[in-house]
Design the sequence.
């Protein structure tokens, strides 16, 4: 592709080539003017190593690193390219699974502390969800206080990490047929930590060398994430902070304010950010900000922390992954408060050009040169207030600011509970209308567009190209993570604003139910909500008896993190067709070995045969769109559903009313019912 050629030639891209987001383009211009580097410019001058990027480098022992680039070449130990690629891949899956799951573990510990009155400022917000989840886990709920139930649930969740044998409990929520398949294949995780540790053991020098066998364990390790650690993280976040429901929010750098103390929370775990939200609304803190000459405190988020507080409290998102540096470049950020994951080390040196304080808070993550204020749940609110005071004290040091005048409104908060409710109404929550719409062909199928942004791809461009086209093709889109923020910035996540850009059948459904055509379902750990929706669609009936039969596809068009590889693997093993855009970590073949495609083949055709889902890496958004539609149509045909035909829809709902306006009563009745209605 043209952009990549440019990158390989180590020429700098213009801001317009680097991003499609006008706010990002403006800030990249300022970075260039001031000679300040960003991930975009570093990606331009740092060409990716094409030996490592395509999986041809093994650095697992001191005899190497070995680069397997010639026909017949192996590592010093004899390791073949397939073994090396499978080992590198599972190590990434293990790291991704570990990151999500450790987040889930911390949430479970917070639940335990809250249940025992040991966590300052927290409470059990969603008792209904606590009871539902506890019951699903076999915990008695009758005549017990929320704290008693939460205490037992927390213990059960904590046990899922260290369990040695059996099956982790949340995995059993999958459709019956899927659970049976996993049992037959021997991939149900025994315990979250056990699978991650075993992945590392198996890839130590001299252990597992059969690529298929290694990838088999990659599946088990990833399921420990999606149907284990991440699912626990989502459950506990909802119990403690409330299950999301639609509300109004805003996204992009334009949410920063010139006359207020701007504090950005960046990272992933909602334990800290929720407390910063609470502290920012404290009258004493607001007064403190006013005394410093500001109009108040303006809180916003970056990355998945943004999604957590956006979908629960409507706190604006300043941007997605690639905007963390750009936010600081505005000169208007008093403090960027980070916890874990997706935090660039470059933040500290970048912030030295401005007054911005980078504040680390997790005992697991420190950045040299940053201020460390360690977060402890026992006095969380006090610490959150201290962090905000630190930011307010820094307001006096602010110099010139350039805040881009770009932001867009959105409606986030589509938890699976809410989708169920909105489709059925309060007395009959149900997925029936969604299934019916798919079965009738009003909705052609469903696409989950998720994951990161990556400076090697024009920022936001794959996300938005794919979303835009699939909506025209009547595909309902659900989103999480940085993908959701990318499309929010383009206005797709706001009911009416996006509806003139979607196909006729999908438009009818959106108008009837009152939803945007793109549903924001949360952060990356909340991809588990998508698993739950797919399971409930299967349970509702009419779309087969397992996830692999549902006309649905998963896409991570601009992936970059190891967490994305874990998500992709558990989705494929759950029955979904998953496409990743950009770099393919199992692509490389030594010269003259074009037929040897074992690892890539195994993840595609091999997994499809076993799990009905598959994983592919593609670097062309239009090819991803083509394959998405092909797959959806193939699944529709397999279910015996009518062929997708957009010409038969778009004549009911609001469109119909507009069309018949001005007709006589009889003619209107004839238009609607085929004949006048006798009175
Ligand atoms: Ni997901 Fe969320 Fe964004 Fe990618 Fe990072 S924030 S956990 S990994 S970059 S989507």
Sequence:
């Amino acid at each position: 592709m043209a952009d990549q050629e440019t990158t390989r030639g180590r020429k700098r891209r213009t801001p317009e080539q680097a991003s499609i987001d006008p706010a990002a383009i403006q800030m990249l211009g300022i970075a260039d003017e001031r000679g300040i580097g960003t991930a975009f410019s570093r990606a331009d001058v740092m060409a990716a190593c094409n030996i490592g990027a395509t999986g041809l480098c093994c650095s697992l022992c001191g005899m190497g690193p070995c680069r397997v680039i010639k026909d017949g070449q192996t590592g010093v130990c004899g390791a073949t390219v397939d073994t090396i690629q499978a080992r590198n891949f599972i190590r990434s899956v293990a790291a991704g699974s570990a990151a999500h799951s450790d987040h889930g573990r911390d949430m479970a510990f917070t639940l335990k502390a809250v249940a025992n009155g040991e966590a300052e400022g927290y409470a059990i917000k969603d008792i209904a969800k606590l009871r539902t989840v506890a019951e699903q886990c076999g915990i008695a709920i009758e005549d017990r206080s929320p704290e008693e139930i939460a205490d037992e649930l927390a213990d059960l969740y904590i046990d899922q990490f260290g369990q040695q044998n059996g099956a982790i409990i949340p995995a059993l929520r999958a459709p019956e047929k899927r659970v049976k398949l996993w049992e037959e294949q021997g991939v149900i995780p025994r315990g979250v930590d056990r699978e991650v540790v075993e992945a590392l053991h198996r890839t130590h020098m001299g252990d597992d060398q059969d690529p298929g066998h290694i990838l088999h364990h990659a599946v088990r390790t990833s399921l420990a994430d999606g149907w284990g650690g991440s699912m626990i993280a989502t459950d506990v976040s909802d119990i403690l902070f409330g299950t999301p429901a639609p509300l109004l929010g805003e996204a992009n750098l334009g949410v920063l304010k010139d006359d207020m103390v701007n504090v950005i929370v960046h990272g992933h775990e909602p334990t800290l950010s929720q407390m910063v939200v609470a502290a920012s609304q404290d009258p004493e803190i607001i007064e403190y900000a006013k005394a410093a000459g500001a109009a108040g405190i303006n809180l916003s988020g970056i990355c998945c922390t943004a999604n957590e507080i956006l979908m629960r409290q409507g706190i604006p998102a300043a941007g997605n992954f690639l905007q963390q540096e750009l936010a600081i470049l505005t000169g208007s950020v008093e403090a960027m408060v980070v916890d874990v994951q997706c935090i660039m080390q470059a933040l500290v040196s970048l912030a030295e050009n401005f007054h911005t304080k980078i504040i680390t808070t997790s005992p697991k993550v420190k950045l040299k040169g940053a201020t460390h204020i360690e977060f402890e749940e026992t006095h969380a609110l006090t610490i959150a207030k201290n962090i905000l005071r630190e930011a307010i004290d820094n307001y006096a040091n602010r110099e010139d600011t350039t805040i881009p005048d770009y932001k867009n409104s959105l409606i986030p908060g589509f938890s699976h509970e809410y989708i169920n409710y909105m489709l059925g109404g309060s007395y009959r929550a149900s997925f029936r209308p969604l299934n019916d719409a798919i079965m009738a062909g009003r909705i052609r199928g469903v696409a989950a567009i998720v994951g990161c942004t990556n400076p090697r791809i024009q920022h936001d461009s794959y996300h938005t190209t794919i979303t835009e086209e699939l909506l025209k093709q009547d595909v309902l889109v659900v989103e999480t993570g940085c993908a959701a923020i990318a499309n929010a910035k383009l206005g797709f996540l706001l009911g009416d604003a996006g509806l003139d850009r979607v196909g006729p059948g999908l438009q009818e459904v959106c108008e009837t139910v009152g939803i945007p055509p793109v549903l924001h379902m949360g952060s990356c750990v909340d991809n588990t909500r998508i698993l739950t929706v797919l399971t409930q669609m299967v349970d509702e009936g009419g779309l087969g008896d397992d996830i692999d039969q549902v006309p649905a596809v998963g896409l991570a068009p601009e992936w970059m993190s190891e967490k994305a590889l874990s998500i992709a693997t558990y989705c494929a093993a759950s029955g979904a067709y998953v496409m990743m855009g950009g770099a393919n970590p199992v692509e490389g073949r030594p010269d003259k070995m074009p037929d040897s495609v074992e690892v890539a083949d195994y993840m595609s055709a091999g997994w499809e045969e076993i799990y009905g889902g598959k994983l592919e890496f593609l670097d062309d958004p239009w090819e991803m769109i083509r394959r998405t539609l092909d797959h959806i149509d193939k699944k529709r045909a397999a279910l015996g559903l009518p062929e997708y035909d957009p010409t038969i829809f778009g004549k009911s709902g609001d469109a119909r009313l507009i069309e018949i306006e001005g007709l006589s009563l009889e003619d209107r009745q004839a238009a609607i019912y085929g004949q006048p209605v006798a009175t």
